[in-house]
């Protein structure tokens, strides 16, 4: 809508509801359209009206689409790409499970600064990392329930592997930048950049913050692996084979 493009964006607008509406005017044969704009914020006469372009867009998306960035730290984001390797011996089973929840061989997860991880990211990681003894979950008997199992830790080895996968991915991405976050901050403080370069450095710095935060999350998770509850423990509890103190109860047949 050309006219709507003239309305400026403001980060103060947090509503996801459309700020404008286009509809036909009254009359069965009318070809006229009526455009109406509703301000999400209270305004006084003569004040500028602002709208929210898209509350879910990252600063990288805003920069590419509109040529500006938002000061909100939650706009800082990084898209982490994960995939099921074609060389994986369980490639077909894993792909089938991923597709059953709307994902695929390659999955993209938008991680935002200070926000929880995307809900499907950990289950997908655990699926990718299923190897050895944990691969029994790929059997057809578990097919309808496997994603539910993947939403919780499977085993210490599996959880350790997903921590390594993410930390390696973050380290690799960070090493691909030509500057460090500290160098970016110095450039911004110097104030000698062109507007376009300032936007680019801001987006780049935001991505580095997200990568650093994500790396720290999984480093801390790696240190807490012994405190997590895994599939086998949950299964034993479901069967009533774990005592109040966490001890395993061995079933013995009644004596004749």
Automatic annotation (TrEMBL):
| Domain Rubisco LSMT substrate-binding: start-end pairs | 86-211
Which terms does the record give in the GO molecular function aspect?
protein-lysine N-methyltransferase activity
Q: Does the keyword S-adenosyl-L-methionine apply?
A: yes
Q: Cite the InterPro entries for this sequence.
A: Rubisco_LSMT_subst-bd (IPR015353), Rubisco_LSMT_subst-bd_sf (IPR036464), SET_dom_sf (IPR046341), SETD3_SETD6_MTase (IPR050600)
> Which key words are in the record?
Methyltransferase, S-adenosyl-L-methionine, Transferase
Tell me which Gene Ontology terms the entry assigns under biological process.
Answer: methylation
Q: Which PANTHER family match?
A: [FRUCTOSE-BISPHOSPHATE ALDOLASE]-LYSINE N-METHYLTRANSFERASE, CHLOROPLASTIC (PTHR13271:SF113), UNCHARACTERIZED PUTATIVE METHYLTRANSFERASE (PTHR13271)
- Protein name stated in the entry: Rubisco LSMT substrate-binding domain-containing protein
